[in-house]
Amino acid sequence: MYENLLASVPTDLWIGGKWRKASDNARFEVIDPATENMITTVASASVEDAKAAVDAAQNAFEDWAGRKPRERGEILRKAYEVVMAHNERLAKLITLENGKALSDSRGEVAYAAEFFRWYAQEAVRNIGEVSRAPSSGARIFVHHKPAGIAVLVTPWNFPAAMATRKIGPALAAGCPVVLKPASETPLTMLALMPLLAEAGVPAGVVNVIPSRRSGAVVGAMLHDPRVRVVSFTGSTEVGRKLLREAADNVVKPAMELGGNAPFIVFDDADIDAAIEGAMIAKMRNMGEACTAANRFYVHEKVHAAFSVKLTERMATLKMGNGLDDGVALGPLVNSEGRDKVVSLVADAVKKGAKVLTGGRVPEGKGYFYPATVLDNVSDDADLLREEIFGPVAAIQTFKSEDEVIRRANDTEYGLIAYLYTKDLGRGMRVSEKLDFGMIGLNRGLVSDPAAPFGGTKQSGLGREGAHEGLMEFLETQYVSVSW
Ligand code: NAD
């Protein structure tokens, strides 16, 4: 069934520019979430393989770091073009292993490629400074050097973009990388490797080692003194673990963790615009996004209009195999993900929420869950505190600005908040008071390679994208000079 698509997709480890089996020949299955069928098997890296990948990165380091910034930039620019030329094939592969609708996957490939284009331009903007020490008169010469080998660990919800958002700046900075993709979705990154080679990325600069033994493999690399950066995107729980491990060798961490985004609709909002924004903020990737709107706070004066319109839109979304035409809602990634959504909805309903649409698992194969709107959600419902990671919109009402700011901030997460109001003064005032790294003000989508993406509190450390993303892979060196 998948033969054509899979014909050219490699399934082994990519180390030092070559495909190789796991040292102990271990493999694991990759499952199609729409059918529950096995797609293929992939090599499962061992600790020994991880060491070989770090060896390969080390061998490539001096040459790559020594290349002229323009040369690294040109290779990244070529990578952008090659990925875009393979957009459709990569998009289908993402849908196959992740489940998301093909339109979502196409958008993801374009977004993923943009990180190569953006960092092609940032590669030549590693800018230092020279100043004069106020008292001694010495010159303060500051420049930025590649930080060293970077270990990248990525989640399954954006199999391409969460990886290129790290590979792009690392390569621009001059750092070689070892990437461990999520076990649910290893194929997209493996398929990317020949494309990067075609673009001119030298052997050993990017290594990819899928593994079922994530803890042991990543742990071993974080304890290898040659590794100087760990850039992780995933759950806060695993992020905390990696931070503890990174502490042993004082490895520089960049952490993009979980979210619990509030979506606030004031009584002066353009309701149609808020509905458009809500559909994107909630339903992009079937709600399986760290940026997904998790809690809807709607002013009591516009609550009726908003909930009716949102329900109408959610109820018309076509659910099915993401590869089929017209499908907007594919399956969730696996049975655990769906079970979690089922239990969060059951808990909310038990505590008084009203189901306006959806809420029922369809019969048959595939990890499907319908677009669901819950109204009258009570404050003690678990889904207001946990990431839903599914297509469920939970609506509550509010009366005043101070009240909604307090409730929106009442979470351990601080990744993103959305708010809709026609009064830009209020929009900026409320944005400043919201303790989140990113705000969508009259917008349901903020992700952009040119913007610093990241969160406050337990949503993470550091930023990806923009110039700040490049700085995560650089070390500052200061030379005190007399001349
Ligand atoms: P996860 O934390 O379970 O896994 C992420 C990655 O870590 C995977 O590659 C996994 O194999 C690996 N991993 C798991 N246990 C590990 C261990 N003990 N040691 C080393 N590596 C380990 O997350 P997920 O389920 O793949 O992704 C969903 C989560 O990612 C959500 O919480 C979501 O909010 C978050 N996310 C955050 C961002 C962001 O930019 N802030 C973006 C996308 C996803």
Question: What small-molecule ligands were found?
Answer: nicotinamide-adenine-dinucleotide
Radius of gyration: 23 Å
Overall number of structural domains: 2
Task: Kindly state the percentage of residues in helix.
Answer: 25-40%
Strand content: 15-25%
Give the overall shape, derived from the CA principal axes.
globular
List the helices and strands and how they pair.
Elements: H1 3-6, E1 13-15, E2 18-20, E3 27-31, E4 38-43, H2 47-66, H3 69-85, H4 87-98, H5 102-122, E5 129-132, E6 139-146, E7 149-153, H6 161-173, E8 177-180, H7 187-199, E9 206-208, H8 214-222, E10 227-233, H9 236-248, E11 252-256, E12 261-265, H10 271-283, E13 293-299, H11 303-315, H12 335-350, E14 354-357, E15 372-375, E16 392-398, H13 401-409, E17 413-414, E18 416-420, H14 424-433, E19 438-441, E20 456-457, E21 460-461, H15 466-471, E22 474-481
Helix pairs in contact: 2-8, 3-5, 3-6, 3-7, 4-5, 4-7, 5-6, 10-11
The structure holds nicotinamide-adenine-dinucleotide (NAD).
